[in-house]
Design a protein that fits this description.
Layout: H1 6-39, H2 41-45, E1 66-67, H3 88-92, E2 103-108, H4 115-122, E3 135-138, E4 142-144, E5 147-151, H5 168-179, H6 186-190, H7 194-198, H8 202-212, E6 218-223, E7 227-228, H9 230-237, E8 247-249, E9 251-257, E10 265-270, E11 276-279, H10 280-287, H11 302-305, H12 307-312, H13 316-325, E12 332-333, E13 338-339, E14 359-360, H14 365-378, H15 387-394, E15 401-403, E16 405-406, E17 412-413, H16 424-433, E18 439-443, E19 449-453, E20 460-461, E21 465-466, E22 490-491, E23 493-497, H17 499-507, E24 516-517
Parallel strand pairs: 2-3, 2-6, 3-5, 8-12, 13-14
Antiparallel strand pairs: 1-24, 4-5, 6-11, 7-14, 8-11, 9-10, 15-23, 16-20, 17-19, 18-19, 18-23, 21-22
Helix pairs in contact: 4-14
Length: 525
């Protein structure tokens, strides 16, 4: 019987074809997808603010979880055409005052703070709250711009005065108030350490806020230099359940929980500067006290319960975080929506370009009202204020060069080794030569330092200043004869931006989707 090679050859051909197909098919698909990707800005951006330009940094790892919430502004009208003639009343007529039935603003200040800070706050971010809506807590009863300010330390029990030298600052201030020397004797008033008193305000203000305005869905605690985008805050809180114990803000490292054998836990708290938010359920849990069979309260009130810690801890926001941790309410970190940086110090990059701005810390008084008025003209019905939008407020890089200006050293790196950089111009050329660089800073005169940066930052004015001399090292022997005093050295500051490069980067990030991030304690600057 004759043997036929045709079936064998047919099988071999099919196998060879299969192998080629398995190799070529995915390769062809890859090139087709790549072509489509580069041809479409929408695909390239994907609505989340990440293009392919490398110089502003990769996305964080792991990529945060984004929530596709559709939110609507409660302001009406949503935005206004604002000029220098637009009054505060006209701006506040757009404010949804009814929302304070559910959301309680609580502003913390101190008598020793510069008055310009609270005045700027009350003329801008807090301007639209009525006296009944806004609670202002301090270390002295007074009236500021017609607003009642409540002394939150006045009702603390006598135990706070015992063996507590820090609290003597409060007693001294009260005594000077009674004898008429407070603010009259400027030296004695300045000697009162208001900052050291500040930590004692946090727990009492949570208790008092609940006592005065019980049962609100949300309690928003903030400070005089906190700028709150209330439209973004209202949108954010509308996506959450106040019946869930929630404690939210910008996370900072706190105390270590050593109560569990062989398993220490590093805890976190919400930095008070960018503000923090407590849900109704969180406040209820924090203030809960055990009750005996006859109805008697077995536990002391919250503030008294933690007096020993308050004596030792530096900061009240840290104590708030620890007390909440002890009732199983850990902080939910919502950086960068709660931002510890000031507006002029925000480093813009891929990390959060399409994420909402809710709060900013360390806002300068001169920026407060201007930012507030600008915000009213930029508000949109379906989209909160994003970092993409905030960029437009100061527009770093316009102009492209600024003398006596410090745009920082965030995400810095140096010129390549061997490069001769001895001026502002050669520093700029080093930036241009690096695809990672979007701005540069020349520290001139005696410093002669070139700083290149991967992220865009506005910065602040900065005049020439002396360079600090190094201190003698500990244990170092002093010379037998005093050395001649060295000549004082100086540094000046000049900043530049790669405007075309920045504009190209911005143009590729359309933010077709808002990135509402989930909670995280690792997603920080």
């Amino acid at each position: 019987m004759a043997f036929s090679f045709k079936p064998v050859m047919h099988m071999l051909s099919n196998k060879r074809f299969l192998r080629i197909s398995l190799f070529v098919g995915p390769l062809l698909l890859f090139f087709l997808l790549a072509a489509a990707f580069w041809a479409s800005p929408q695909l390239r951006d994907n609505g989340i603010g990440r293009g392919m330009l490398p110089w502003l940094g990769p996305a964080e790892k792991p990529v945060p979880e984004f929530y596709p919430f559709e939110t609507i502004s409660q302001f009406s009208p949503v935005s206004l055409s604002v000029d220098e003639k637009t009054t505060t009343k006209e701006l506040c007529d757009t404010f949804p005052s009814y929302i304070t039935n559910r959301i309680q603003p609580v502003l913390k200040t101190g008598h020793g703070e510069k008055r310009v800070k609270i005045e700027a706050q009350l003329n801008s971010s807090s301007a639209c709250f009525s006296n009944e809506d806004l609670l202002i807590f301090s270390d002295l009863d007074e009236t500021i711009l017609g607003r009642p300010v409540i002394d939150i330390l006045a009702d603390l029990p006598p135990s706070f005065r015992v063996d507590n030298p820090d609290f003597d600052n409060y007693l001294t201030m009260q005594a000077m108030r009674r004898n008429g020397t407070l603010d009259v004797d400027e030296a004695a008033t300045a000697a009162i350490n208001g900052w050291i008193l500040d930590r004692f305000k946090f727990l009492p203000m949570v208790e008092r806020a609940w006592t005065m305005r019980p049962g609100r869905d949300w309690y928003v605690f903030y400070e005089t230099d906190t700028y709150i985008v209330w439209d973004s805050m209202f949108r954010f809180l509308s996506t959450l359940d106040p019946a869930t114990p929630l404690y939210m803000g910008s996370p900072s490292p706190g105390r270590v929980d050593k109560t569990r054998p062989r398993h220490e836990i590093k805890t976190w708290f919400a930095n008070g500067g960018p503000g923090f938010v407590l849900s109704r359920a969180a406040v209820e849990r924090l203030l809960a006290r055990d009750v005996g069979p006859a109805g008697q309260l077995l536990d002391p009130p919250l503030t008294t319960r933690w007096l020993d810690l308050l004596r030792r801890e530096c900061c009240g926001d840290s104590v708030v975080g620890w007390t909440l941790w002890n009732v199983s309410v850990p902080v939910s970190g919502y950086w960068p929506m709660f931002n510890p940086h000031p507006m002029h110090g925000v480093p813009y990059s891929d990390l959060y370009w399409c994420q909402p701005v809710i709060t900013l810390h360390k806002t300068r008084p001169e920026d407060m009202e201007e930012l507030w008025r600008w915000e009213h003209s930029r508000r949109q019905k379906d989209t909160p204020l994003l970092y993409r939008d905030l960029y437009e407020f100061r527009h770093p890089g316009t102009p492209a060069v600024l003398d006596n200006w410090d745009n920082g050293d965030w995400a810095r790196f140096g010129p390549p080794g061997g490069a001769r950089v001895d001026s502002f111009e050669t520093c700029g050329k080093a930036c241009e030569a690096s695809q990672d660089c979007v701005q540069w800073l020349w520290r001139g005169l005696d410093a002669g330092e070139c700083v290149l940066m991967r992220q865009v930052r506005y910065g602040v004015p900065r005049e020439p200043e002396p360079i600090p001399q190094p201190e003698p090292k500990e244990g170092e022997e002093a010379p037998k004869e005093p050395a001649p005093k060295p000549k004082e050295k100086w540094v000046n500051f000049k900043s530049g931006w790669m405007t075309q490069r920045i504009d190209r980067w911005r143009g590729q990030r359309t933010c077709s989707a808002v990135q509402w991030v989930g909670p995280s304690i690792t997603r920080v600057y």
